[in-house]
Amino acid sequence: MSKPLHFNAFVMNTGSHIQHGQWRHADARQADFNDVEVWIDLVTTLEAAKFDAVFFADVVGLYGAAGSAYDVNAREGLQLPSNDPSVLLSALAVHTEHLGLAFTSSILQEHPFTFARRVSTLDHISKGRIAWNIVTSSSENAARNFGFDRLAEHDERYAWAEEYVDVTYKLWEGSWDEGALVRDRETGVFANSSKIHKIDHRGARYAVEGPHLSSPSPQRTPVLFQAGASGAGKAFAAANAEAVFIAAPTPEIAAEGIAQTRALAVAAGREPGDILFFQGLSFIVGRTEEEARAREADIDSYASVDGYLAHMNFGTRPDGSPYPPETPLASIATNERQGMLDWLRRSVTDREPTVADLGQIVAQRARVVGTPESIADELEKWQAAGVDGINVNNWRLPGSYEEFAELVMPVLRERGLAQTEYQPGTLRAKLFGDSRLNDRHPAARYRGAFG
Ligand SMILES: Cc1cc2nc3c(=O)[nH]c(=O)nc-3n(C[C@H](O)[C@H](O)[C@H](O)COP(=O)(O)O)c2cc1C
C-alpha cells in the first residue's frame, strides 16, 4: 500500500480562475460565484470526499502591463469580478468541521498588523483550520491599487515578504505567552498583562508596537503555504513555508525543484519533511479511455485561448507591446512569475518553444486524462518524484470535484493513495501531527522573546 497523498481543491472566488472559457458551460456554477450557496455545496462535497483543504487563490489587481486595456479580462471573467476569499472562509468555516481552509493574501494588500488579527480571528472561528498562501503579487495594477508607482523588483518583493512575515510571527508566536488568557470569574481577571507583550518591531517598511489584539488561536501561526519557484522564491519557501505549490510540467522537473528547495531548507536548519509539496494538476475522468477523450473534446470546445493568453501574459513586454511570435520563451525576461515562465518553457522538450506556442502550451499543461486507474498510475509517478499532495484544479464547479470524488477517490483509497478518515485536530495537526509550528521554524524564535 502507498502512503496517502494530500488533496486540495484549487479554486478562486471568481468566475474564471485558470481554465478560461469553461464558465459558459450549462453545468458550470462558477458563473454564480457571488452566491455563497455555491461554495457551501462545494465544501460539503469536498469534506465528504475527505479532501484535506479547499485552497483559494487571489489577486488584488488586473493581469496585464501597467495601464493596459482590460477588455479581455472583463469579457472572459478572467479573475474579474472577484471577491475576497478570507471573508468567504468565515462562512465556510461554520459549514465544515475538518476541511482545511487556505487563502491567498499578498504582502501588498494589507498592513501585517491587521492581517495577523484577521487570520487569528479566522483560526478561532474555524477551530484551527486556516492556512495562508503568502504571495508577493506580480501585477502592476495591484501595485497601483496600493499607492505605488510600479511593482517592486522581483527579488525586492521577497525581501519585503521576509519583513512582513517577521511582523506576523512576532504577533502570533511571541506577543501572548501561554496562559495569558485567564477569564477567572472569581478574581475578575480576564487576561494577565504580564504575559502579554508589545513586540516593538522596527524595520525597513513597518513599525509595529503591539501587543497582538487577538489571544492565541488554536494554531497561533496559520499553516504557511507559498508558491514561489524562482531562486528568491525557493529561498523564501525553504525558510518559511510548510507547504509549497508547484506546477511542474513533469515529475522529473518536479523532483529537481523539490530537491533544491529541500536542500535549502536543510541549510536553513529545517528538515526535508518540514515542507510538503503540492503539484497542481487538472483531471478529465472517464469510466473508459474513450469516455475520457470525449470529455476532453467537450472541455476543449469551451476553452478560450484569449483568456489563457491574457492570464499568462508573457507574450507582451512590460510596456504592453507584443513580442514577435518567433521570440523564444528562453529569451523573455519578466518581473512577474519567473518560476511559471520556466515551467511553461520546459513543458516543450523537443525544441525551444516560442511566443507563438504559448496559447497551446498554457491550455494543455498539467492535465491528466484517463480512467480512474490510469489517473492513479499517474499520481503514483508524481508521488515517486517526491510530491506529497495534489492541488486539484477544476474545469467546472462543482462538477470537476464531484467526478473526482465519485470516480477517482475510491480507486485512490484502494491503493492507499488517499486518506479514508480525517485525523483529529487542527489543520497543522492533521498534516504534521502537531498544532503548533515546530521549533526549527524561524517563527519559533519569538516564543518567550518579548517577556
Ligand atoms: C500553483 C500556483 C498558485 C499560485 N497562486 C497565486 C495566487 O493565488 N495569487 C498570486 O498573486 N500569485 C499566485 N501564484 C504566484 C506565486 O505566488 C509567485 O508570486 C509567483 O510564482 C512568482 O514567484 P516566482 O517568480 O518566485 O516563481 C501562484 C503560483 C503557483 C505556481
Mean pLDDT: 95
Number of domains: 1
Q: Which shape, going by the Cα principal axes?
A: globular
- The Rg value, from CA coordinates, equals 22 Å
CATH architecture: Alpha-Beta Barrel
Share in β-strands: 5-15%
List the helices and strands in order.
EHEHHEHEHHEEEEEHEHEHHHHEHEHH
State the share of residues found in helices, binned by percent. Answer: 25-40%
CATH topology annotation: TIM Barrel
Uncertain segments are none
Give, in spatial order, the strands making up the sheet with the most strands: 1-2-3-4-9-10-11-13
Sheet/helix structural class: alpha/beta
> What's the helix count?
15
Listed once per kind, the bound small molecules are: flavin mononucleotide
Give the C-level CATH assignment.
Alpha Beta
By DSSP, the count of extended strands is 13
Q: Give the biggest beta sheet.
A: 8 strands, parallel, barrel
> So, the CATH homologous superfamily?
Luciferase-like domain
Describe the structure.
The chain has 451 residues and is of the alpha/beta class. It has a single domain, classed as Alpha-Beta Barrel (TIM Barrel), CATH 3.20.20.30. It has helices spanning 36-48, 71-76, 85-93, 112-125, 140-145, 154-174, 231-240, 251-267, 289-302, 305-311, 338-346, 358-364, 372-384, 399-414, 427-432, and strands at 6-12, 53-57, 100-106, 130-135, 181-184, 189-191, 201-202, 207-208, 223-226, 243-246, 276-285, 367-370, 389-393. The strands form three sheets. Strands 1-2-3-4-9-10-11-13 form an eight-stranded parallel beta barrel, surrounded by six helices. Strands 5-6 form a two-stranded antiparallel sheet. A hairpin with a 4-residue loop joins strand 5 and strand 6. Helix 3 packs parallel to helix 4 and helix 10 crosses helix 12 (358-364). It is globular and about 70 Å long. Bound molecules: flavin mononucleotide.
